[in-house]
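Students often ask why inverse folding is considered easier than folding. One informal answer: many sequences map to the same fold, so there is more than one right answer. In these notes we will look at a single instance of the problem. The structure comes first.
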């Protein structure tokens, strides 16, 4: 029986223990208003700083030293942002300065390049001109030159006529190609007679003429021997004139125009003796080449 009561008691003890705090809590709940009404609760105790730190204020944002990375400090983050902005501004300034100098260098390089191009172009033009001048000089030195020399006024055999003669000589260094001649004899009383214009349309082909070579040509048409007789008055002049056309060896057409003046007073006629009857003039007048003069008009060459 005692055992049964003891077991029952042990079963009820836990329930009684659990129900007691609720009751006490309820009593506390009920007693709190009364306590609030009676006295105000006292503030919690404030911890006093140690004496050695009493004069030093608290610092929730410790300073940010250069090179320090304190991620828990707002002030440090602000300083680092300011430093980064300052560095960015500095690099921007440096970049602007470098950009200015780069631009100035580019402008100077462009100017130098332009000047160099101008000088190069001028040099190229001068070089081309010098080359062309040298080539032209070489051609002038090496080309063919035809000179026309007086060769007298001479009678024709078996006829009482005279013709003017010339001697064409190549004094250049190239072969004169396609040589063509135009030769005329004119008698005039005018000491300042002017030669007519000449062209190659009426000229006659004479082949080619090598350097230092020469060929003789006579005037086209004849004149009576009596026209140059020294006894004729008034004074007369015989003109052997015309032109020689040719290629100078460099496919350039050239021409030598000439006019040789003879004074008919210098004409000579051979004297013959017939038996014992004396001497007489045959009438075959001629003028020696040494009497010829280069006239003031009609002499030209290119």
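Output (designed amino acids):
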């Amino acid at each position: 029986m005692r055992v049964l009561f003891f077991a029952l008691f042990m079963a009820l003890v836990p329930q009684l223990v659990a129900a007691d705090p609720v009751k006490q809590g309820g009593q506390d709940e009920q007693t709190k208003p009364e306590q609030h009404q009676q006295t105000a609760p006292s503030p919690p105790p404030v911890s006093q700083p140690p004496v050695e730190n009493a004069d030093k204020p608290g610092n929730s944002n410790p300073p940010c030293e250069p090179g320090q990375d304190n991620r828990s400090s707002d002030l440090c983050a602000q300083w680092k942002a300011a430093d980064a902005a300052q560095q960015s501004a500095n690099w921007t300034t440096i970049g602007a300065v470098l950009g200015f100098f780069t631009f100035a260098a580019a402008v100077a390089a462009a100017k130098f390049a332009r000047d160099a191009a101008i000088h190069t172009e001028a040099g190229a033009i001068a070089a081309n001109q010098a080359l062309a001048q040298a080539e032209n000089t070489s051609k002038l030195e090496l080309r063919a030159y035809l000179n026309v020399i007086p060769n007298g006024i001479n009678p024709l055999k078996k006829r009482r006529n005279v013709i003017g003669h010339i001697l064409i000589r190549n004094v250049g260094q190239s072969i004169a190609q396609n040589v063509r001649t135009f030769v005329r004899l004119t008698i005039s009383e005018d000491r300042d007679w002017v030669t007519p214009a000449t062209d190659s349309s009426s000229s006659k082909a004479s082949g080619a003429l090598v350097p230092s070579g020469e060929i003789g040509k006579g005037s086209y048409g004849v004149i009576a021997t009596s026209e140059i007789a020294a006894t004729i008055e008034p004074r007369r002049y015989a003109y052997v004139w015309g032109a020689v056309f040719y290629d100078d060896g460099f496919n350039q057409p050239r021409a030598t125009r000439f006019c040789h003046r003879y004074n008919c007073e210098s004409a000579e006629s051979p004297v013959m003796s017939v038996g014992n009857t004396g001497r007489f003039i045959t009438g075959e007048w001629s003028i020696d080449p040494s009497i010829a003069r280069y006239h003031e008009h009609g002499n030209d060459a290119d």
